[in-house]
## 1
Amino acid sequence: MDDYRSNDEFDAPWKDILESYFPEFLEFFLQEAFDGIDWERGFEFLDKELSRITRAASIGDRRMDKLVKVWRRDGVELWVLIHIEIQGDRKTNFAEGMYVYQYRAYDLYQVPVVGLAILADEEEGWRPTEFSYTLWGTKQSYRFTAIKLLDYSEYALEQSTNPFAIVTLAHRQAKKTKHRTEDRYQEKRRLIRRLYQQGYSRQQVIDLFRFIDWVLHLPEELDDRLLTEIVMFEENQKMPYISSVERIGEKRGVKKGRQEGKVEMLTSQLQRRFGSMPDWASERLSKADLPSLENWSLRIFDAQSLDDVFSDKE
């Protein structure tokens, strides 16, 4: 079994950190949008609505999309949807997918839809920003903002105190050290130590640690070695953020615990919606990976039966 997670498994940590720090995400990646939003009115993640768009589109798996409702600062009584996608590798129909999501979201809500793509791959030349076609006097064109993680200089990322500077560094190092275990260990160790030097709050340190720990996955023996170093470092710094007893237990069982928690919650939701669970459904849940559990949880809102929830069709 490969020690390193697939690109698909970057989805969960990105989703968690984006939902926890959405204003900081926009401030880092799309300053113009951050400046134009009335943050006092809050924001809302439209997971149910996104699920409707996902099922209607035939453009492949779109697990890391986020649809967010925000309000404009300029006083115009109009809310804006921000469609965000994190893409870890080249995808041939990516621009088309951004276009499809944009027009389906607009069709549902009749409000402006801002497209933002975070390109987290390693191909310098892959930079999709537009989908268009022209035929017999008709022209269709859709442009969106694409942010390439490779474009950020390491120096600038090291100087920034925005949480997504650390997120970007960790993601890039995860790609770069995929088959270099000792290098990955050193980079993970360095990034974790930096968390205490950037002036982050205790909760930010814990949340960013979770992201780093997930994407810079290490073999168990190296993980234990690093954990020992963290305990000693925190004792010296008198900052027991990560190495408390409950955090150590959480760290060692983070993936298992997250899956078990998701299975328990999804089982409860399914029972509430459809009644008692048949054995085949319980077995599917017990053997599922996190992406499948996330996908099924979105389908509950509109599914008419258990078969609809567990269907292999997109």
## 2
Amino acid sequence: MRDTLAILEEGQRATLFDVYARQLGRTDDAGQAWRWRLIEAFRAARPPSARLYDDVAGCLAQLRHRGLRLALLTDNPAASQQHKIDCAGLAPAFDALVLTAEIGGSGAPKPQAAAFHAAATQLDLPPAALVMVGDHVFRDSLGALEAGYAHAFHIQRAGAFFNFDLALCVPLLPPGRMTVLQSLTELDAHLPAGSNQ
């Protein structure tokens, strides 16, 4: 447990099982088979519940009250993401659920423009009428802006998995097109009055 948590905290989430196998010296064929069993077990895990940040429900309710149309755009295996959405009870809050693994024949994870265009298509709105709210500067914010979205809101939470050095990252984005939030409770104040899309 300690070793895997250290790997995660070092930012190697996507390669957790590869790094863990190397640390244990399991790089032969038997080790690769063991690694794949770990990956499959992880993908098959179905937690009984999903915890939301305290500001999520209120933010979604406020956006709905304004009449905004909402899409959830998420990466990773579709079955596990759908399970998380179901456990969290999020589906009713959105007009569209876009699982990027299901786009096209082989999927289109963020930051590919196809992911953001799929959300726009499902909402029946042009990308220029949309904003993105996410926690990853490059996959969410920059991906959305490069796909033609009007604006991006980056949520930077203390203790979150992604914790970017914004002094380094923000200059890489188009000026004035990304707003940093500490909480979703701030979002409504940044949206134009009378927004209804």
